[in-house]
Amino acid sequence: MITVSSLKHSAKSEDSYAYDNETLYVRLRTLRGEVDKVILWIGDPYNWAEGGLDGGNMAGTEAFGWIGGNEIEMEQEAVTEFHDHWFAVFKPQKRRCRYGFILFGKEGEKFLFGEKRCVDISSPECEERELSRLNNFFCFPYLNKIDVLNTPSWVKNTVWYQIFPDRFCNGRPEISPEGVEPWGSTPTSFNFMGGDLWGVIDKLDGNAANLLI
Q1: Structural contact between residues 140 and 99, judged by C-beta atoms closer than 8 angstroms
Q2: Entry's SUPFAM superfamilies (predicted)?
Q3: How far is it, in rounded angstroms, from Cα 178 to Cα 194?
Q4: pTM for the structure as a whole
């Protein structure tokens, strides 16, 4: 049986984000060893069959008739001690989408995992109804350019090193202010050790980093 409490996904988070201006990355977590396959059911929220939509209310409980779903088989990208991690890529034609996850359990179960509930869709009738019912699907409203992380190219070749000057090295003890602790004593949250920029400069030759914070 699929352990529903172990299913994890949040829209517009590290689980669902814009990789570039056209591409959505989607991730899902399940309990380790319980799920054989995951299908991402995803598509444009405004693609409806004639007569659907519950009078125009997409979130209505009777809003059946959504036909925008596409099936994308998710890749199992990692297995950790307690969980399996699944991944898929989707390019929404109009940069917006609704989606859910179809889970195939190792014991023959078939569930739809949505934003509001997890539904057994083993029967064809239930599957047809739930896959056309938009109010249970996660929402990614729009792929905005401003939301895309653009990392500068130089970052990839950077070795970062963070320094707290006061605790790093006291390069010029003669300019230390009054009240500093003797170098090598135990630091606390409130004392000062007298480290300075001269101490940082003196140690640069032995530091393999090329970016200091």
Answers
A1: yes
A2: (Trans)glycosidases, E set domains
A3: 9
A4: 0.74
